[in-house]
Amino acid sequence: MPVSVDLDGLDGLSRSERIAVLRRRISGAAGPAAASPAVPATAAVPATSGATAPVLEPVPTAAQRPTAAQRPTRPVLPVPSALSALLPEGGLARGSVVAVSGAGSLLTGILASVTASGRHAAVIGMPRLGLLAAAEMGAQLHRLALVPDPGSDPVEVAAVLLDGLDLVVLGLGGSAVPPSRARAVVARARAKGATLVVTDGRWDGAELTLSAHVDGYDGPGSGDRRGRGRVRAVRLGVEVQGRAIRPRTGRLVVASAGEGVEWSTARESGPTVTALSS
Q1: Digit-coded pLDDT (tens) for 185-201
Q2: Which of 110, 48, 101 is nearest to 79 (CA)?
Q3: In terms of DSSP H, where are the helices of the chain?
Q4: Is the pLDDT at 33 greater than 90, yes or no?
Q5: What does DSSP assign to residue 266?
Q6: What is the mean pLDDT of residues 59-80?
Q7: Does pLDDT of 55 surpass 50?
Q8: Which of 123, 267, 99, 69 minimizes the C-alpha distance to 177?
């Protein structure tokens, strides 16, 4: 079962005291986050007694700069395999902020992939999250912490949880986060090597923006029975945008498979019912 994080008893405490209390509750309830590639620390420069001038390295020429293939890739959190092909790094880069909107299957699929891989996640301010759908997609709910009512400052709660978890999902409830506040949280996510996903609100400066809409359904019969029968799959249209990439679009299928749900790339076969416009 997912862990429900208790935020009672925080009134009257200083920021550092609230952080300490929340960390103890998360670590005791959800367990330590799975081991992940550490964020390299900045090397300290030893002090010297002499006032010598710093040694400057020559600026590399264009021929000496590493190519895109030679640049080190960042560690990422896993996503459904069908979605990974649309992402520039094949997953959600650690230390980044990603905005997700539209069909809820996209977010539950991400949570399922992350927790199924042994990593830990938290969801803030989303009391109606589809836990059953996430479990059917393979989510390990005991690695998922829930904060359905984060109080007056959900952004602060998210900043605290970035310390000890791999993925933090923040529901903004339709609000907008000021750019100065967003930059501070982005810096914290980068320093901790955690990924923040924001949804249901405005967050300027997200590295990636993922949006999904229901594009149709597979399964109902054809001919006289067209539109009747059991829906076996939902088709999603997904668009990915980012600061450093051209927009990418794809069609994915979320389909029942045995006792679970699987993701795949859409193929034009079988009867399809087009989703009605809202």
Answers
A1: 999 999 999 999 999 99
A2: 110
A3: 15-30, 81-84, 104-116, 131-136, 154-161, 179-192
A4: no
A5: -
A6: 63
A7: no
A8: 99
Mean pLDDT of 82-92: 93
Per the structure block, which two tokens stand in for 57?
A: 């390295």
Which tokens belong to 252?
């994915």
* 3-state SS assignment for residue 248: strand
Can you read off the two tokens belonging to residue 112? 């399922």
Give me the helices (H) in 130-228, please: 131-136, 154-161, 179-192
Residues 6+ apart with CB under 8 A from 118: 34, 140, 143
Q: Strand 176-177 relative to strand 144-147: parallel, antiparallel, unpaired?
A: unpaired
Name the residue with tokens 């190519």.
67
206, 182 contact by CB (below 8 A): no
Q: Which tokens is 65 given? A: 């700069």
DSSP helix, strand, coil percent of the chain (3-state; round to 5): 25, 30, 50
CB 172 within 8 A of CB 206: no
pLDDT exceeds 60 at position 121: yes
Residue type, 127: P
Backbone angles phi, psi at 24, to 5 degrees: -65, -40
